Task: inverse folding
């Protein structure tokens, strides 16, 4: 099927060896684009002069579907957007609907939600680390990262039965009580994880080749990041110390002490360091949280049929990839009138052009990896 | 201020363009839009629909969701039974803090600021679409809302100006969010804010792709999620998924879609 | 048998036999090195590796070979058919040709050329033609770009590697591979102890020469240009593959010959006999080692979970016992046979040790970007190699002029070279910010 996406890039005729500029197409199928992303690069020799990301290959019309499902029915769909960090999506959606209803989950539910979301953040960052390292040529960390991720997914499976698209939370709280041994499992994971992450750091952080491949690559200044709406670790690596968990706390985050890692330059290496440190901080949050999970109900009393009063709300959380927001408009019926998902990967991907201009072709793969996108979220 | 004001009164100024807003009158608590142009202070405990024109979906519904909705969150200070709700004044001014921003806006832009309300503790400022760029610039430069969090649209097909273009802005300095809303008709172009916040580039493309809203001044307005040659705008309420899908399947695959 | 045939006929027949043996064994050996690589990779990555095809994956190379042979032969539409056919042939031929001068044992050498080393280096360089032709013949500019990049990398690092080799060559005084090993025997020490930096330079150069990580950008799958091998599939691809692994064994063989003493056992020149016998103590080492491996296999065998694996372990142990037996038997045979068999053992052991480092580096380090790679080669490795060469030559000269131990002078030389290396490394950070005026 023809795809006449017309911009100035496609006006250039087919590439000729020896011409000044060539167009390189990293097609939708490519091992390093982390999903179905198409990147058109205009190259002058080895340098990227212009770039264009073409998305939409994974567009499934989630927002349209939302208008035809009830609030609870829509919750599993939300997992499938950022399928790497499904629990966060669920948290954002459930909290948004709870805000719409004017209610709040009970404290025990909020604490368990926090623990699971932080575990999910670690899992998401581990997957990012493995694939990013693999793109740059380090063939080993991916297996170690997946081994740790496996432990987290086992905890999810024991909790709600699913590993990847978990639908762990319900509107109003949780459906399942934590299973026997939940705290022990989380504690054991956190204890192991401390020295494991140090191991991964020894493989990469001081490695001359890694530093050479990532330092100075894909620099994004703080002003550019803010202007482009970039959030999450990308923003923090560019020097803006901002995290929604601290700025506008949700769930139970205001009870725990943790740092927000920030760096100054905003290159790939800084984003790597920020995410590694975030994993450590998440681990600390989990440890603090399991010390003391309050007792009490796990579900607010909101009835089975949810008909939020008409109106609208915007609620966002700090997902592993950035600010994940839900803008929900209710018309008083059981089905939302409009659900808009503010996808962090979509907006972060816009910054790709800014980061990639002037860099070498071999760095393009590193830059795509460092933004940490999930196409399910970009395209919805 | 924008998200967590201490006082929870909804402030609604009756909008000039009335017609079919959604039935808000019933749920008193935080509902801003009212269809009725009446200035009468709507007592929150009047479940009876004030606005005759409102497509009252569920006049009876309000009490039910109202009760649980009102329960834990104090914001719904007006329980349907509450006799003395926090006074709902007719004139808009939502909250003191909001006052300041809204007052400054009104002082500067006058009529372009149609309405300023507070819905579930979140500030919404409805503005005139043609002034969008100037107001945005004001927000970015003077009020320091330097990040465009989101730009989207909502389709209210029964309204004359069917689209609500929504901009959600965030200020790092003040740690506040504000929502700008502009009504746009079906064929009416909306000024683009790309030059103010470059983040708007893809967001406006997506709006165009999904709703057909044309953004004037956008450097490269084309479809982003749907294929380039797609006909129709999927997120409009009158867009039938099934029909287009079966048509596409018939054209491109030569078979009958079995749905 | 040899006493039946006249020496002149033996001189014709033996090399042919050796050549046939090598060409026959080599593909199998390359295949099994791939299996070893996959198993080692898996071990480093906390997993098992091939396990299904044959017990513990032992039949995997056979399966791969059969699959490649049976694959459809695809030639790109506008490709130059003759060159497309010729390119992998050139690569493989050159790789195999280099084995002609490789001394696996004192008598196990196809041709004892007096310019053996030069011959091997020259022939390996010719292998680059295979790469460039392959890229050209594919009629795809991405392949061509990959091929050119690969060729540039190979040429640069061959220079560096060659310079590293020369420092050992100075010590040996001859280009003949056999004489180099004999020189190490005469001097009683492996040359790596005289010129460790030369060895290091050669090692880095050889990793780049064989397109192995961290220098495998031209052929990495996650790169945009998939390399000169893209359009090749099936048997033609397997020829390239064979060429790559044959090259690996060649460079390992060169390193072994020049730096690690070739077929010599450790402490070859010292003779300490076992009490009461004429068997040397250190000659018993191979047999003991292999016996140890055999015993370990037998120890592991009953502890395997599955019956087939128990059987395989036991068979591996048995195989090791047989090898140990052969080695022990050689102890009692004539010195020529002893040297031949034990020599082959030591040579292969050193080659495998060298290759193990190749495998280890591949799975530990990320990949160098192409410009960083070239910068490393030209601005670090070649200057260092030159300095090393001069320092070694000076050390040799000093020994001749002033007497004293060569070891002492070479240690001095190495210290100086090391200082220069640190200076070069510091001065030339492999940074990723390429200056704008970089015309490519």
Result:
């Amino acid at each position: 099927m023809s795809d006449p996406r017309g911009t100035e890039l496609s006006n250039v005729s087919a590439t000729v060896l020896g011409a000044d500029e060539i167009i390189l197409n990293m097609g939708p199928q490519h091992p390093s684009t982390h999903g179905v992303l198409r990147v058109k690069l205009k190259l002058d020799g080895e340098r990227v002069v212009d770039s264009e990301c073409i998305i939409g290959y994974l567009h499934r019309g989630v927002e349209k579907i939302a208008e035809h499902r009830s609030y609870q029915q829509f919750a599993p769909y939300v997992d499938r957007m950022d399928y790497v960090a499904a629990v966060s999506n669920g948290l954002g959606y459930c909290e948004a609907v709870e805000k719409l209803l004017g209610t709040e989950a009970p404290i025990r539910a909020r604490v368990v939600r926090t623990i699971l979301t932080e575990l999910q953040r670690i899992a998401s960052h581990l997957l990012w680390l493995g694939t990013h390292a693999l793109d740059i040529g380090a063939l080993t960390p991916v297996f170690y990262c997946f081994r740790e991720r496996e432990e987290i997914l086992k905890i999810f499976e024991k909790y709600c039965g699913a590993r990847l698209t978990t639908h762990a939370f319900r509107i109003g709280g949780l459906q399942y009580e934590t299973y026997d041994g939940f705290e022990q499992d989380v504690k054991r994971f956190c204890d192991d994880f401390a020295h494991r992450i140090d191991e991964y750091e020894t493989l990469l952080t001081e490695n001359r080749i890694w530093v050479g491949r990532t330092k100075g690559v894909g620099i994004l200044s703080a002003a550019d990041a803010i202007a482009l709406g970039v959030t999450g670790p990308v923003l923090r690596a560019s020097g803006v110390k901002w995290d929604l968990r601290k700025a506008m706390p949700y769930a139970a985050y205001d009870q725990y002490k943790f740092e927000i890692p920030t760096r100054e330059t905003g290159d790939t290496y800084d984003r790597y360091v920020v995410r590694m440190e975030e994993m450590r901080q998440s681990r600390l949050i989990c440890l603090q949280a399991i010390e003391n999970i309050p007792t009490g109900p796990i579900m607010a009393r909101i009835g089975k049929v949810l008909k939020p009063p008409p109106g609208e709300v915007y609620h966002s959380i700090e997902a592993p990839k950035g600010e994940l927001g839900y803008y929900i408009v209710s018309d008083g019926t059981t089905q939302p009138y409009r659900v808009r998902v503010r996808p962090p990967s979509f907006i972060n991907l816009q910054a790709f052009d800014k980061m990639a201009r002037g860099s070498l072709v071999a760095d393009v793969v590193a830059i795509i990896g460092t933004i940490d996108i999930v196409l399910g979220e970009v395209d919805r | 201020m924008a998200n967590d004001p201490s006082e929870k009164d909804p402030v609604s100024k009756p909008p000039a363009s009335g017609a079919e807003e959604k039935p808000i009158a019933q749920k008193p608590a935080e509902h801003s839009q009212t269809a009725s142009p009446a200035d009468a202070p709507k007592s929150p405990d009047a479940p009876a629909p004030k606005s005759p024109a409102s497509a009252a979906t569920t006049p009876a519904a309000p009490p039910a969701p109202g009760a649980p909705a009102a329960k834990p969150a104090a914001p719904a200070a007006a329980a349907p039974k509450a006799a003395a709700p926090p006074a709902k004044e007719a004139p808009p001014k939502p909250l003191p803090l909001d006052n300041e921003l809204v007052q400054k806006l009104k002082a500067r832009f006058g009529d372009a600021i149609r309405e300023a309300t507070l819905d579930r503790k979140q500030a919404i400022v409805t503005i005139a679409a043609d002034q969008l760029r100037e107001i945005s610039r004001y927000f970015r430069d003077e009020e320091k809302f330097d990040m465009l969090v989101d730009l989207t649209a909502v389709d209210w097909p029964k309204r004359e100006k069917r689209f609500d273009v929504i901009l959600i802005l965030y200020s790092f300095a003040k740690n506040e969010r504000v929502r700008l809303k502009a009504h746009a008709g079906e064929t009416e172009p909306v000024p683009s804010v790309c030059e103010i916040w470059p983040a708007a580039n893809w967001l406006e493309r997506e709006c165009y792709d999904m709703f057909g809203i044309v953004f004037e001044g956008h450097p490269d307005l084309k479809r982003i999620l749907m294929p380039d040659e797609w006909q129709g705008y999927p997120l409009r309420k009158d867009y039938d998924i099934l029909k287009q899908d079966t048509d596409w399947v018939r054209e491109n695959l030569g078979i009958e879609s079995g749905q | 048998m040899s006493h039946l045939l006249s020496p002149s006929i033996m001189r014709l027949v033996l090399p042919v036999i050796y050549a046939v043996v090598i060409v026959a064994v080599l593909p199998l050996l390359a295949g099994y090195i791939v299996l070893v690589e996959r198993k080692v990779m898996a071990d480093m990555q906390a997993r098992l590796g091939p396990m299904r095809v044959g017990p513990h994956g032992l039949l995997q190379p056979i399966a791969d070979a059969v699959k490649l042979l049976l694959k459809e032969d695809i030639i790109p539409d506008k490709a130059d058919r003759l060159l497309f056919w010729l390119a992998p042939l050139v690569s493989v031929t050159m790789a195999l040709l280099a084995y002609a001068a490789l001394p696996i044992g004192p008598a196990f050498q196809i041709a004892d050329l007096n310019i053996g080393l030069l011959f091997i280096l020259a022939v390996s360089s010719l292998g680059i033609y295979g790469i460039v032709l392959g890229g050209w013949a594919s009629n795809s500019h991405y392949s061509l770009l990959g091929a050119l990049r690969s060729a540039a990398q190979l040429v640069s690092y061959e220079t560096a590697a060659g310079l590293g080799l020369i420092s050992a060559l100075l010590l040996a005084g001859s280009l003949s591979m056999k004489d180099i090993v004999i020189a190490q025997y005469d001097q009683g020490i492996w040359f790596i102890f005289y010129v460790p930096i030369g060895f290091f330079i050669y090692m880095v150069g050889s990793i780049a020469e064989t397109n192995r990580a961290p220098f495998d950008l031209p052929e990495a799958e996650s790169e945009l240009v998939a390399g000169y091998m893209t359009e090749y599939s099936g048997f033609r691809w397997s020829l390239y593959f064979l060429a790559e692994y044959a090259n690996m064994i060649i460079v390992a063989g060169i390193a072994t010959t020049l730096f690690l003493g070739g077929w010599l056992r450790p402490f070859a020149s010292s003779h300490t006999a076992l009490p009461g016998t004429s068997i040397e103590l250190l000659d018993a080492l191979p047999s003991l080692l292999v016996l140890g491996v055999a015993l370990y296999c037998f120890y592991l065998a009953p502890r395997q979970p599955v019956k087939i694996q128990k059987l395989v372990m036991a068979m591996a142990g048995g195989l090791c016992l047989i090898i140990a037996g052969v080695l022990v038997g050689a102890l009692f045979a004539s010195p020529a046979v002893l040297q031949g068999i034990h020599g082959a053992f030591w040579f292969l052991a050193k080659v495998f040790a060298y290759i193990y480092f190749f495998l280890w580096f591949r799975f530990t380090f990320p990949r160098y970007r192409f410009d960083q790679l070239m910068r490393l080669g030209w601005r670090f490795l070649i200057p260092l190699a030159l300095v090393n060469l001069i320092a070694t030559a000076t050390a040799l000269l000093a020994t001749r002029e002033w007497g004293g131990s060569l070891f002492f002078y070479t240690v001095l030389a190495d210290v100086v070279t090391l200082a220069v290396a640190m200076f070069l490394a510091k001065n030339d950070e492999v940074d990723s910010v390429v200056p704008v005026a970089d015309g490519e």
